[in-house]
Amino acid sequence: MNKHLNELIELSSNDKAIDAYTPQLEAADKKVAKIQKKIDAVQSELDTLNGDIAENETKIKTFEEQLTLLNEQLSSNAKKMKEISTEKEMKALSLEEDIAKEKMTFANEEIERLQGINETKKALLEETNEKLTALTAEFEAVNEVVSVEKAEIEKAKAALFAKREELSRNLEQKVLAFYEKIRIWAGNTAVVPVKKQACYGCYMKLNDKTYAEVIKADEIVNCPHCGRILYLEPVTAEA
After folding, report:
1. What separation in angstroms does the CA of 157 have from each of 16, 19, 63, 153?
2. What is the residue-averaged pLDDT of the chain?
3. Residue 37 has pLDDT above 50, yes or no
4. pLDDT tens digits, residue range 56-86?
């Protein structure tokens, strides 16, 4: 077999091994991302609950201030009652007092309603905080395991990159450049075997002349259909 072809097969195999770790890294990141997504959702729920509670507290405070003003108004009206001299003034003051009492009743009802809502929301807040604590602990545990997994993968990849550097250094630069050019669009299928007289990159059948050149393996042969580098696997050659 052509020396350069043999080197290209080895380099291609090494590149495939490097890229094979990508799905593993992505899967590891997904484990962490999945829990992070849950944490973000729970945090969003917490923010909403806290926002609702704060908004209700503001409303309660507004109603309480309104009650204070209405109480002051009723006290003032009680003093005025002693000073009125006409029936018309009496009716006007009485109407004003009735309206103030209605407003006070409404304010008290709203305060009670909002306080009830906040009690429910505070209970939910406590449950959600517990959920967040549990998820945070789970995140830390998973992240620790994933960090170890990724460290081992990166270590293995580093060894393969070192090997690639060595293979690239020993390969003739023109041949390496030719391989890299094909790899830009073909990825890890830049160098493919021929089986049953077909390119295992594009799966198109080779003509007899090209197939004969692949069998001889004296030179680097490209698929006439897709341009990938072809080689015959040892077992196929023996057959």
Report:
1. 11, 9, 66, 6
2. 93
3. yes
4. 999 999 999 999 999 998 888 888 877 777 8
The pair of three-digit structure tokens given for residue 140, joined into one six-digit string: 């830390």
Residue 237's pLDDT is what? 44
User: Among 1.10.287.1490, 3.40.50.300, 3.40.50.10800, 3.30.390.30, what is the CATH number of 21-151?
Assistant: 1.10.287.1490
- 226: helix, strand or coil: coil
d(CA 38, CA 144): 18
Calculate the alpha carbon distances from 73 to 59, 60, 136, 156 in Å.
Answer: 21, 20, 53, 81
Domain layout of the chain by residue ranges? 21-151, 174-238
With contact defined as beta carbons under 8 Å apart, do 194 and 236 qualify?
Answer: yes
Task: Provide the H-helix boundaries in 20-86.
Answer: 21-81
pLDDT tens digits, residue range 194-207? 999 999 999 999 99
Give CA–CA dist 101/78, Å, rounded. Answer: 13
